[in-house]
Amino acid sequence: MTHPADDHQASPACEVLRVDDVRKEYQTEGSPVHALAGVSMTVRAGEFVAIMGASGSGKSTLLHLIGGLDAPTSGSIQMEGRDLATMNDRQRTLYRRRRIGIVFQAYNLLPTLSAIENVALPAMLDGLNTTAMQQRAQELLELVDLGHRMQHRPHALSGGEQQRVAIARALMNDPVVVLADEPTGNVDSHHATAIWKLLSRLTRENRCTVIAVTHEAVGAGYADRALVFKDGRVVGEIKPGGEDHAGDLAARYTQLVG
Ligand SMILES: Nc1ncnc2c1ncn2[C@@H]1O[C@H](COP(=O)(O)OP(=O)(O)OP(=O)(O)O)[C@@H](O)[C@H]1O
Ligand SMILES: [Mg+2]
Fold first, then answer.
1. Pocket probe mutation, ligand 1, options 24, 26, 107, max atoms within 8 Å of Cβ
2. 46 is in which domain, residue-wise?
């Protein structure tokens, strides 16, 4: 079956995402906030891109726009060769559910559902509630080390555990692109390492594309490159040399935003 969100054209040279001079202004009671002031970037299929930058530099805003949760004030975003602005609401919803996995900074789990129900939700919304889906949700929870918390509701989970449920949920529908907003912001260092390794493995083994916001040089060290944001703009790019180069990466980052 072909889904409306799937009728995209193949993109040139395995490019999965193209962001072209995107600006986002928020109108507030005072002066407008220029959250993004002209961001351009391209991401290839299977790439792992970290996004770094100070608080308020526009990182979450960009992920929300790429996820089709909000529209840019100007500029364009193309995912898999398709301009998000050309999608109607239903197509955008399906695009988000079937092509993208989002890990929100604030997790956004549904409070009335158990951990396993939260993970299975993207498939259930598509009317798929099979044993195989339950099995997959269980495996994903085990992958983030939460096999022992499957029936817990969010209020009965720690912040770090909720964050790991959100990661499992983002992977439920086998996304083409994972957008992760500080996915290890609340987890301990042991689980943080496991999450970075998991995201990195997804790009290498499943050719999934990962775009992850992080403040941690160690996490960004797992990425193929880190884009550094300042005041709504990309001010530089760092090519990490792996985990051992976290120190160098942190120094270069400080230089760029300093
Ligand atoms: N809905 C909104 N209305 C008005 N201003 C907003 C809104 N959302 C974000 N902003 C402003 O836009 C700027 C960018 O916000 P954003 O959430 O993208 O930052 P961020 O880089 O993700 O920061 P953090 O690291 O703290 O999560 C901030 O100055 C913020 O106050
Ligand atoms: Mg943010």
1. 26
2. 1-96+176-182+209-258
Residues 86 and 106 in one domain: no
- The reply to whether the predicted model has a pTM over 0.90 is yes
- What DSSP character marks residue 125? T
Residue nearest to atom 3 of ligand 1 (CA): 26
Question: Is the domain of 111 the same as that of 158?
Answer: yes
**Does the Cβ of 208 fall within 6 Å of ligand 1?**
no
Q: Consecutive 10-residue runs of the chain (258 residues): their mean pLDDT?
A: 43 84 93 95 96 96 96 97 95 93 94 96 85 93 95 96 96 95 93 93 91 93 95 95 77 90
Strand, helix or coil for residue 77:
strand
Strand partners for 33:
26
56 Cβ inside 6 Å of ligand 1? yes
Write out the H or E segment, with its range, that includes residue 138. Answer: helix 131-143
108/91 same-domain check: no
Look at the chain and report how many structural domains it folds into.
2
185: Cβ below 6 Å to ligand 1? no
